[in-house]
Amino acid sequence: MTARGRADLHMHTTFSDGWPAPQELVDYARAIGLDVIAVTDHDTIEGALRARDHAAGHAKPHVIIGEEVSSRDGHIVALFIERKVRPGMSAAATVHAIHDQGGLAVAVHPFWRTHRSTRGGPVHGVGWLAAELDFDAVEVENATPGFYVFNRLARRLNMGLGTAELGGSDAHILDAVGRAYTEFSGKTPKALRAAMESATTMARRRRYRAVGLMRYAAWGLNHQRYAV
Hints:
Layout: E1 4-11, H1 22-31, E2 36-39, H2 46-55, E3 62-71, E4 74-79, H3 91-100, E5 104-107, E6 117-118, E7 121-122, H4 129-132, E8 137-142, H5 148-161, E9 164-168, E10 180-185, H6 189-197, E11 202-205, H7 210-226
């Protein structure tokens, strides 16, 4: 029987709005036993490249190059890419650009909405476009505190779609890493991709510790203060 691996496929570093440096993220992921991680900073792959370099020579975690792309219609995570995907395009064009370089497109927190905007555009998920466009997976477990309803809606949507279900922490602090994760048959990025393409992944979630919730609140207050 093939061993099952754990992957956290939605994480941020100091190269966008996360607090951990890429190296800290890799070391923490190794300490908690994750097999695969994807670094998905907003509109850049620089943090992911640094994380992959830092992880080289170790058995795990394997690092997937990712990016959380700010499309005009909401955030989309690109996995298994090597080049930055340009922000500001429509969701359809963004998905096409991800596929054009052999990557996989994920509808992350599709039903999360907020009135806040940044220089990159609106800050929310793609909504019902998750069902209309050629997404490879839907994030049905996002570990952001308060996302219970959004996750339930995403899971119900994906039950009808039948695409791969993913869990991602959306970590901006170390305590969040691995709080939501994707379980799959195997231990490597190749095995993970095969599981995504065959829609055999399973999304899981772990509870926060009280101190983690306090740190997340501190990050949130700091982020709101400086987000423009």
